[in-house]
Amino acid sequence: MSYNPLVSICIPNYNSEKYIKGCIESALNQTYSNIEVIVLDNMSTDESWKIISEISNDSYKKFQNKKNIGMVNNFKKVYKMANGEFITFLCSDDKLYPNAVSKLVSLYKSHPNLGFIYSNIDYTGSRKGNTNYNNPKIFPKNQWSKNSIMSGRNPVFLIGTIFRKDYDRVIFQDLTFFDWYIWLMLGQKKVGFIDDSLGTHHYHVHNETTRSNPDYLSNYLSLCDVIHKIREKSIFKNFIIKIGLSKMTLNFIKLENNNNHKNKILDKYKSRLLFRHKVFYYLFLLRNYLKNILSQFKNND
To answer: What is the pLDDT of residues 182-191, one digit of tens each?
Structure first.
C-alpha cells in the first residue's frame, strides 16, 4: 500500500481581495490528491471574505475570525486547525504550481527525518526573476541554521516549504517572529531542498513596508533572543553567533537606509540594536574568559 499522507495547505488571509481567489485555486489544483486547504480570514475590511465564501470544494475549509488577532496569531491559529501529517503555508497573494505538494512529499518519502523542505520560487509583481538558490539537496544536521545566521538573513519563503506537524510542540508556543524562527529551529535537523520553482511569490508595496514598522523591529530583537536560546543548547559556537548577529544588524540597517521610514523608525531603534549586540559581544568575551580560568583550575587539580 502506497504512503500518501494528508497535507494541510494553510492560507492566512487579510485584505487580499485581488489575489486570494487565484491563491486558493492554485492550492486546490494540486496533482497530489490527499490535501486539505484551510483559509482563515483575519477580519478583512475588503471583499476577501466574500470571495473566500463563494469557493466550494470537498478539500476546502474556510473560517473567519470575529476580530483581527494580528498576523502572527492568525498564522498560528490556522496552523492549529490543520489535520494533516504535513503542513505547508501559502500566503494569500502567492500561488503554488500544480506539482508543488507532490514534489515536496516525494522528497520527504525518501528522507523522512528532515526538519523541513524548501525550494526555489519565482517572483511576480514589482520584482521579477527567481530565487535561483544553488543549494545541496540535503543539508547536514544544523548546517542550514548555521548558514542562515551567518548570512544574517532568512532565505526561505513560506511558499514551497513543508514540514511535519508533530515538530510543532515547542516551536509554535514561542513563535513571535513569524517564519524565520520556525526554520532556525527546524534547521537543527537535516534540511531538504528542491532545485525547482514550486510557486510564485508576489512582490508589492506591502511586502516591502511590512519590515519598516515598530512591530517588525520588536520582533527582530526577539529573534536575537531566539538565536541565543539556540546557542545555549550548545549547537553553535560563539564566533558563529557573534558574526551572524553582527551581519543581521548591518543588513537590517542597510534595509532601513533604503526606504522612507528611516528617520521615523531606524533612528529610534538603531542605537538599541547596536547597544544590544555590543552587550552580547562582551558577555561572550566574559564567558570565554571565565571558562578559560575554570579550565586552568581543573588542569591544576
So the answer is: 787 788 889 9
